[in-house]
Amino acid sequence: MVLTLAGTIRGARGLLPVALFVMPFGVSFGVAALKNGMAPDQAIWMSLLAFTGIAQFASLDFLQASVPYLSLALVILAVNARHVVMGAAVSPWVNQLPIGQRMLVLTFLTDPNFADSQPVFVNGERDVGRLLGGGLVLWGMWAIGTVIGVMGGRSLGPLDAFGVDVVMLCFFTALVAGRVRQRRYWAPILIAVVAAVLLKEIMPEGWNILAAALMGGAVMALRGEARA
Amino acid sequence: MTPDPSTVLALDRDSVWLIIALVACVTLTSRLIGPFIMRVVPITGRVERFLDGVAVSVIAALVASSLAGQGEREMAAVGLAALVMIATRSPVAAMVAGIALGAGWTYLLG
Predict the structure, then answer these.
(1) On chain B, which terminus has fewer CB atoms closer than 10 Å, C or N?
(2) Are A7 and A134 in contact (CB under 8 A)?
(3) Do A69 and B22 touch (CB under 8 A)?
(4) In chain B, how many H helices and how many E strands?
């Protein structure tokens, strides 16, 4: 496996249409951060340093007089637990890189660029730039959106009217639906969907996704063995 | 001593920096740890299938978990996106169709 500049640029270009839709979420975060008492510069730094949409929104609830840091850490861990399995899923390719490149690529691992590049790696892509470039363009748009948000995003009004709120859902759905033609993915997808919905009732947000992902993986591993 | 009323509600800047640092560190750790763990796991055929199953499942679970808390508009948008993807194999076409449905629904039904 390699990591090239050309591959990274290709990856960034490929995910640009999706990343453009991430910008409005950055705007919403900027607006929400100010509303919850964060300073504009801090909201921007948070988007640059943490680069984690759902977790950043979740952390705004913790902006209070005496911050419960331990609870905050647990919530962020739960919301981001899926990164661990996503990282594991791309490890066969990423772990072939030198340590510095590996850490660089993983720092920009998010749902959209993971969902975009993992199937491409399975199909033989050798350049991890696909993952890094996608992450970089998402990161840039997320930060630009946050800047717009803190500079006066409130005047833009609610974004639902433009259908922006369903963008990521539709993108992820498309990537899952892209696998439906391959029968071997039916069982893990079905198990994961059912498990995620049922476990949501009894587990804190985030853990249900991790549990559902592990169950989907287990089903896939076991079925393959039965057929062999 | 009574605190100045204008500062009572204002959030202490240093606490916010600490929150930012904590969120950033926990998130970065979650991103780095998966491949680190996998360095000691031999990649057999079964492990490979497991990881491939996890990869598609985590995204499917993300969508399902999010939809479970939402209404018919989001369901319809996602359903259309899935159909368009299966028909055209173009994620961008699927996204545009889903967004258009979401926007149209809000416009027509509020």
Answers:
(1) N
(2) no
(3) yes
(4) 5, 0
